[in-house]
Amino acid sequence: MAMPEPATAKPGQSLRITFVLPGFSRHPSGGYRVVFDYASELQRRGHRCQVVAPIVGCAGPHAVRVGASERLKDVARYAAFRGRGSWRELDSTVKFRYPVIARPADLPAGDIVVATAWRTAELVAAAPVLAGKPVYLLQGYETWDSPGQPDLVDQTWQLPFIKCVVARWLFDQAVTLGVGDRTFYTPNGLRLDQLRCTTPIEQRNGRVVGMLVSENPVKGAQTGLAALELARKQLDSLDVQLCGLYRPSFPLPPWMTFNENLQGPELNDYFNRLGVFVHPSLSEGWGLMASEAMAMGAALVSGDNPAIFDFVRPGRDGLVVPRESPQALADAIVRLATDDGFRVGLALSAQRQIQRFSLERAVSRFEDVLLYAAGRGPRPAAMA
After folding, report:
1. Which CATH code, of 3.30.365.10, 3.40.50.11090, 3.40.50.2300, 3.90.220.20, is assigned to 16-189+358-373?
2. Could you confirm whether domain 201-354 is CATH 3.40.50.2000?
3. Helices of type H across 193-317
4. Strand 276-279 relative to strand 319-321: parallel, antiparallel, unpaired?
5. Structure pTM?
6. How many helices (H) and strands (E) does the chain have?
7. pLDDT for 175-230, tens place per residue?
């Protein structure tokens, strides 16, 4: 499907935009992918974007403390990887800066500087005025990254920044924290032209089941693995295709297949093999892989983490069950594996539903907020 050409920034509205990541990663996560997509698309629209990706991390009162040996390992990993093996199509004109430790003085002059995580918000708050107006892109409620000290995360939400949240539940959180008046809902978007459904949904095997595995506890891998074990006991066959950036340190059942660091065509092929995709996450800002699975024809089974309701209508676009319930997940998997008519109808509805969330729509909404923050556009509606 041909996608429309993006609008070009009007004269006088071209912005110099700096995105600040919490660190450099050889295998960027979904949150990084969103930042890269935004930077590339905004660049295509006539803005000038750059990304600051510190090799070790960001300076600040709550910076992650690492020893000298770990810093050397980070620098060595960066040196071995830089400039090779790009996993994502980026506009080649987007500039990247790789300071060892990002400090306020490392932020270039610009019109907008975007914090992309709670630790980067502290850095942006200390940035010189010439770096630009601060904007906070909130892709989750990162208390998982500040165990035992949720107030540290809340304090960054209360900084006097314009805030963009990718899910309605995050907007509600902003209201709870008293900052709803400076917060805008900017839902994520997908490169729908690249997420192709090449295997007809009707021809798929409902017993081929995929799931993301991560060592981050909020992703719910242990709940999902337990559910798959329970589902297998109820079925005479189950082909489980796990995926993840890295093979986890905890053991995986030998009858499950693990697919590591899938990118581009490999990721498309993976999703097109699946009849069902299981999303056991306990908390998500958005749930990128769940939405990608929908776009490429896999029927979705998900825990009821709040982000899922931005793009899934329960019972119409996916089966949504209680979080942390392996048995509920297993029952949903079995239902889809044994009822092809129901699975196909659910997957077809999901594929239509997710078309609403194009990258072009997401970037247009985000761009409007940036122009407002820079004083070059009207205030957008908070929840458009």
Report:
1. 3.40.50.11090
2. yes
3. 221-234, 264-273, 288-295
4. unpaired
5. 0.89
6. 11, 15
7. 999 999 999 999 999 999 999 999 999 999 999 999 999 998 989 999 999 999 99
